[in-house]
Design a protein that fits this description.
alpha+beta, 266 residues, four-stranded mixed β-sheet, 16% strand, 14 helices, three-stranded antiparallel β-sheet
């Protein structure tokens, strides 16, 4: 079941920022959580492929990926290695895919929750940060995927691991059904992936309602709803912590976005 936590003061953010669990066998604190920030609580958790292709996504997805690989190979030769490389490269360049973005950093998720394309909307609605548990997601995976994770002593799949387990979209969808999904760590092929501490959940076509899946099959999923009157306060706090477009979008694009927001007149 999804737990909902409402946040109305900066102090109430602290549990979100300090959820690392103490691991006695390591003598260290570790977190198995991933976060996703969304600027409006009315937004549904859907992939860009679903938004683009609606009910035709299963039919159109292969054509989208094939055409991307055909034309993108000049810029990035990895797109020829597997359909999963095509997805990840495309996702970071605006291609509609079945991937859903997550970050291992709650601060990065807060950045995306606190940032609007139109800054006049900052006071118009509440925003939210979703939290999922990677270990909990593993428990729902088919056996061959769980065994592969166990052999590697990890909680995440690499692209190469996923390629060995599912060589096609059809095989992956058949394996996952409507009640499981793989979380993959992308290769560090660009600075955005590195700076945003990026991970992706690979949504099977059988999972037509992601939030229903999380509500029905998980116990550690949390939806942090952040009051709209707190957004500018948290936005300014993040800037002082160096969490901004300038850091998360390395290059002139991020620099320009950061400067434009910094000088925005309320």
């Amino acid at each position: 079941m999804i737990q909902e936590v409402r946040i109305t003061t900066p102090e109430e953010l602290m549990p979100l920022l300090s959820e690392q669990e103490y691991r006695p066998e390591l003598g260290r604190n570790r977190s198995s959580y991933l976060y996703r920030g969304m600027p409006d609580t009315s937004y549904k958790m859907v992939t860009s492929l679903t938004r683009c292709c609606k009910g035709l996504q299963k039919r159109l997805e292969p054509a989208i990926l094939n055409n991307f690989a055909k034309y993108a190979v000049r810029e990035d030769a990895t797109v020829t290695q597997s359909v999963w490389f095509q997805m990840i490269t495309g996702q970071h360049n605006g291609l509609p895919t079945r991937l859903l973005d997550w970050s291992h950093s709650a601060l990065v998720a807060l950045h995306f929750a606190m940032t609007e394309d139109n800054l006049e909307d900052m006071d118009a609605h509440d925003c939210m940060v979703w939290r999922i548990d990677m270990n909990e997601q593993i428990n729902h995976l088919p056996e061959k995927y769980r065994l592969a994770i166990g052999r590697q002593q990890t909680t995440l799949f690499s692209v190469n691991m996923l390629s060995r387990l599912a060589g096609s979209l059809e095989e992956y969808d058949e394996d996952m059904g409507d009640h499981s999904m793989v979380i993959v760590e992308p290769p560090s092929t660009n600075n955005r992936i590195i700076m945003q501490y990026s991970f992706f959940s690979v949504i099977p076509t059988g999972m037509t309602d992601i939030e229903k899946f999380l509500n029905d099959y998980t116990n550690n999923t949390v939806k942090y709803v952040i009051d709209r009157n707190l957004r500018w306060r948290v936005r300014d706090m993040l800037d002082s912590l160096n969490i901004s477009e300038r850091l998360l979008y390395p290059g002139l694009e991020g620099l320009s976005k950061w400067i434009a927001r910094h000088y925005y007149v309320k």
